[in-house]
Design a protein that fits this description.
The structure is a single chain. This protein is mainly beta. The protein has 3 helices and 28 strands.
Length: about 325
């Protein structure tokens, strides 16, 4: 199949879920197959494409993949909605579970940084892997004392889930999620503590700026910033204020924010539409960065940049 035929196959047959840089000139993409779903089953397909548009099919899983991450320099991990883990390394594809026999999630995401990989999802399910095995990383999420009477109204009000996690410079995880919840835990021990976020809207992204400040974004145009401790404050800015932000990455001097319909740059208190060099606005739902690349995607769009200013569309 030629490069142009492969590109057309992706456009015609697949829906992009997430794209991540795996080298300075290569991107891995997790896709869903709508034709397979129409036949009554899931098919998650992992492709790679280089910056010149050459495509490869490197792995498939017959379950609903929700996120993809690079662990180390060679292993791609695919997280399944129900707790499946797919591994692709040096052409070898394998499957396992975060924890067999436990009803999970649905799981939402997976991040890998340094020697720690964290998978997380709804109901505040979280698992950490520091080698090849997974263990629960959830202490602190349930504040009910053992043996205490359960207040079901309070329990329902407190139900939530994690949408995004980032590793901080202080060797801890910060997690954001439903109804404005923000949590923090040292990597060395699973002891999550809740932080005041000053909002009750869903948070979908959290990033660490170059200077160490933490930024969270989510529904209704909310952007929160934390410059130290647990003091999250709303970031004021000019520009569209009611966009539902779905993803973010840090750039020198600011941040890129995706809202599902477009890509925006937040810089010096101004939210600007990012021009892709096309007459129409290019949809953006997911964003990642690594190896000197910023990569974005939507179900039928894939693009990258080396500086956040000039962009190349691969789909």
């Amino acid at each position: 199949m030629s490069d142009s035929e492969a590109r057309q196959f992706v456009l015609d047959k697949l829906m992009l879920v997430k794209a991540v840089p795996i080298a300075a000139d290569r991107i891995a993409i997790l896709c869903h197959s709508p034709p397979a779903f129409a036949e009554g089953h899931y098919l998650s397909q992992v492709l790679t494409v280089d910056v010149d548009g050459r495509w490869s099919d490197i792995g498939r899983f017959r379950w609903n993949g929700v996120d993809i991450a690079l662990r180390g320099t060679t292993e791609l991990l695919v997280l399944g909605r129900d707790g499946q883990i797919g591994s692709i390394i040096d052409g070898n594809v394998s499957e396992s579970w975060l924890e067999e026999g436990r009803a999970m999630g649905p799981m939402r995401g997976i991040v890998s940084s340094g020697d720690a990989t964290l998978a997380f999802g709804m109901n505040r399910h979280a698992y950490i892997s520091e080698a090849t095995t997974w263990r629960r990383f959830e202490r602190g999420f349930d504040s009910t004392a053992p043996g205490a009477e359960v207040d079901f109204d309070t329990l329902l009000d407190d139900m939530g889930g994690l949408n995004a996690v980032a590793r901080t410079s202080a060797d801890s995880f910060v997690a954001v999620g439903m109804r404005g919840e923000i949590w923090r835990s040292p990597i060395a021990r699973d002891a999550w503590a809740k932080e005041e976020s000053s909002t009750n809207v869903g948070l979908s992204a959290v990033i660490i700026e170059e200077g160490g400040a933490e930024v969270a974004a989510g529904q209704a145009g909310i952007v929160l910033r934390n410059t130290g401790g647990a003091h999250w404050t709303e970031q004021p800015y000019t520009g569209p204020e009611r966009l539902d932000f779905t993803a973010a990455v840090a750039l020198p001097g600011g941040a890129l924010l995706a809202d599902g319909h477009s890509l925006r740059r937040l810089r010096n208190g101004t939210l600007e539409l990012v021009a892709m060099g096309t007459p129409e606005v290019v949809p953006a739902g997911k964003l990642t960065a690594g190896f000197g690349l910023v990569v974005g995607c939507a179900p039928k769009e894939l693009f990258f940049s080396r500086d956040g200013l000039a962009w190349t569309l691969l789909l």
